Amino acid sequence: MKRIILASQSPRRRELLENIGLEFEVKVDNSPEIVDETMEIEEIVKCLSAKKAENVSKTLDNEDCVVIAADTVVAFEDRILGKPKDEEDAKNMLKILSGNVHFVYTGISVLDNKTGKRISDFEKTKVRFREITDSEINSYIKSGEPMDKAGSYGIQGLGSVFVEKICGDYFNIVGLPVSKLCGILKNEFGIGIFDSE
Question: What is the reported pTM?
Answer without folding.
Answer: 0.92
